[in-house]
Structure formats: C-alpha cells, structure tokens
Amino acid sequence: MTPLLEVDDLRVAYGKIEAVKGISFTVEAGQVVTLIGTNGAGKTTTLRTLSGLLKPLAGTIRFDGTPLTGVPAHQIVARGLAHSPEGRHIFPRLTIAENLQLGAFLRKDTAAITHDIQRTYELFPILGERAKQAAGTLSGGEQQMLAMGRALMSRPKLLMLDEPSMGLSPIMMQKIMQTITELKASGTTILLVEQNAQAALSLADQGHVMEIGRIVLSGTGADLLHDESVRKAYLGED
Amino acid sequence: MHELPQQLANGLILGAMYGLIAIGYTMVYGIVQLINFAHGEIFMVGGFGALTAYLVLPDGTGLLLALPLMIIGGIVASTAIAVAAERFAYRPLRGAPRLAPLITAIGLSIALQQAIWKWYPDAKKARVFPQFQGDAIDILGATVQRGEIFLLVAAPLCMTALGLFVAKTRTGRGMQATAQDPDTAKLMGINTDRIIVIAFAIGATFAAIAAVAHGLKYGQIDFRMGFITGLKAFTAAVLGGIGNIYGAMLGGVVLGVAEALATGYIEEIPGMTQFGGGSWKDVWAFVLLILVLLLRPQGLLGERVADRA
C-alpha cells in the first residue's frame, strides 16, 4: 500500500536562506507522525509548504496518489489536507460558530456541516457554550481547540497540527494532548509538529527529529523516546 | 441660505455621495492594505460610462427609463477598469514594498484622467449630464433638487445590500476571513485572489452609482471630477475608520455635514468671516481629517491596531 503522504527530498528557502534542506518522510493512513526539534529546525516551514503557502525549491510531495507540488494553497484543503497553523490563527472578529463554518468553506452538504459542528461542540463543550462569541475573546487553550475543530470541519484525510501545545498551561496542554489521542483512536491520520517532544513521541507511531533543515534521526515514537541523544537534547535530561 | 435644515440636507446628500465612494477605498484597504488612489478616477470613468449609455439610447428617451441603463453602463465601465487595474497593475506588485503600489495608483490615476481627456469625445471641457426636469421638492423645510433624490434612495439601498452580502453570504464570510488573516483564509480553501477582485468590483460598482448621482446633482461631468471628490471620499474612509464599511458611510455623512455647516456658519463667527463660504469648504474638510488623525487615529468606528492582531 502506498503511503497517504510522501515527501521526497523537499527543499524550501526564504530568499537565499534554505530553511529545509532536503527532507524525506512518509505518513501512512491511520498513523500519527510527529516532527520534533528546536526552533528554526524547519518544522513549520515544512507544514506551510505542504499546505501550499510556501513554494518548494525542489523535491516532490505526493498526497493520496497525486502530486501536490504547484497546487495553489486554496485548493489543497479540497484534496483532504487540513492545517491547524502555528499560533492558532483563528479569525478573531468572527464568532466561534462562524470560524467553524469557515473550516467547512468548500463543503456543500449543509446538514452534515451542522452535524459536524455539533460534534465539535461535544468534543470541546466550551466552544458550544460560547458559539456566538467573537473568537478573539477565547483564552489561548480555547483558541487552540477552535483551531483544531476548524481544521477537522473539512473532514480531512490528513490533519496537520503545528505546535498545538505552544504557550498553554500544563493542564490545558494535557487536555489538548488527550484530544489528539482521542482523534488518533478514532482513526484520524495526523502529522504533528511539537516542541514538547515527550508528549508528541508518547502518542506518535513514527517520529522524525529535525535539526537546522534536516531530519537527523527517525524511528518509532517509543524508540525515540528512549534514545539517549533525544533524551539529552529534547527531553532535558543529562 | 443659512437655515439649519437646508444645510443639514445639503451635507447629508453630499456625505452620502462621499460615503458611497469611500466604500471602495475601505474595502480594498481592508483586504489588501492598499490605498487605491486611482479610485477617484474609477468613479470618474463610471460617470462617463453612464453618459455613454445615455447617448447611445434613442433621442427623447425619458430619464427615468434611461437611468437603469445609465447605472449599468457606469458600473460596466468602472468595474472593467478596476478589475483590469487589480489584475495588471496591483497584483504583480503584491508583496512588493508598500510604496510601489501606491506610486502605481497615482500613475494610474493620472493615466485615466488623460485617457478620458484625450479620447472621450468633447471631454476636454465638462460634458453636460442629463437632468431631471421639474421643480425642487420640499422635505422637512429643506429644498432638495429632483436629481438629489436618487442619492437619498440609492445610498441606503447600497449599504443595506452590502451589509447583508458581507454578513450572510458564503463569499461575504470569505471576504471577512481574508481581511482578518489572508494566509489562514487560504487554508480554509478560500480563493483570496478572487475575493480581492470582488472587493475591487464592489467598490467600482458603488463608485459608478455615486458618479451617476454626481452627474444628476451638478448637471455635468468632467475628467477631473474624481480628484477632489476622491480625496474627500478617502478622507471619509479614514474618518470612519478605514477597513470598516459602515465607518465609510458614517465618515462620509459626518464629512458632508461638517462641510455644509462650515460653508454656512463659519462666516458668522466674529473674526472668522473671511474663512467662511464655499471657497473654504475643502480646507475645513481636511482640518477635520487632521483633527481626527490627532485625536482618534483609528477613526470613528475603527479598532485600534492592537485589537486586530
């Protein structure tokens, strides 16, 4: 079986500075794959390139059997790839319900959209309670829930989450990670970018460690969690 | 001439026209952060489009019958120019330093004026615009010309339609999303290039309606009419809070009324006599702009930049 996502020798540059220097990895349907690494490793750049927001310098991206390279950003979500961006980027002056509606912008099945919004409210009850409130009034953790819920509204084949735990309180972070675990259990395929390596590797099937634009180490989540160099560099152990 | 109801009516009519044009500035700015300084000329071209539609109709067509076709002619002309300007002048400069599109807009503005001057028949002087016949109408103690009634009907209709469009339709919601966060809007599947074209087209449509109103009110149009009126409408957009469509209309009305009151009353203030009357009205309009920029830079209905992050 061919993987859902195949990234081959991807290179991305901002002007003359190469941020991603030839990375290759795959995501199988049903898997959770994580990219970990420090700031500036190229994780966010990779996701933004997969979404079409950045144009690659070289390399190929194949998704669900078709090439994604050269497809404009606004057509990517229609292919089944949803992106919850770093920093959440909810639409602050629209209501929570309107934000979720926008997640389903390309869908025409009104009844099913209403149903999916209800399901999002079951997943995150706080969003249902505040459905008519401007999204900008939510706390950081609630905004993260909204960003994830919004990405799910497109019924994606692959959900990309960029730093979902960033800037959250430990309790909120735990809650977000638990939600990701639940999504995984329900069969959602996830590509997860995280600085919190411990949490990410604990629930990932596959992990890749990125350093200044390259993948330096790959393995199963459990392997990497017990790898000595990973523990030293990313899990804060001596 | 100094009765208050009359001055308020004059101001309201003038302000509604500024407001309609200001919508074009504010929508384009709200979505691409570009001040389209050629918008005054898009308004002017709309006027000539409407005049052309009138001239190709058979002689003796009643103005009431001709008016819808004139509006369509104006909208076709102004929208064609606005959409072409977006596609061929502004889009290639997206992502360029902000000075580049600004200079392009000013160049485009001069080019459009000169094109009409050179190629539109007899446009080197003002051209006569058709007029409604009949006496002026008395409304609540103010005398309103028949041609001005058009604006009093068109402006609220346009605003209501635009408000519903933005709030209730899928494209309108896509427009709000693009204004707030263009990259994330793309992630939702919104074709932001298309949204930008729609914003230009709506602005041009409203400008053409304002140009028909301008022609009916003053009885003539000329290739320079977009300059000072465009500048006033831009002032109205800033006054109301640029990026906010209701702010644009409010700013237009406030500016129009302020201008009318300044024209009518400033000369009655002791020691200010020489600053009153029609010749100083533009000065007072821009004094108002300076005051707003000093005291409330975000405009009447604008949000502080920090709130928009």
UniProtKB/TrEMBL annotation, chain A:
Keywords: Amino-acid transport, ATP-binding, Nucleotide-binding, Transport. InterPro entries: AAA+_ATPase (IPR003593), ABC_branched_ATPase_LivF/BraG (IPR030660), ABC_transporter-like_ATP-bd (IPR003439), ABC_transporter-like_CS (IPR017871), BCAA_Transport_ATP-bd_LivF (IPR052156), P-loop_NTPase (IPR027417). The keyword ATP-binding applies. SUPFAM superfamilies: P-loop containing nucleoside triphosphate hydrolases (SSF52540). Residues 5-237 form the ABC transporter domain. It comes from the Bacteria. GO terms for biological process: L-amino acid transport. One of its GO terms (molecular function) is ATP hydrolysis activity. Belongs to the ABC transporter superfamily. This is Branched-chain amino acid transport system ATP-binding protein.
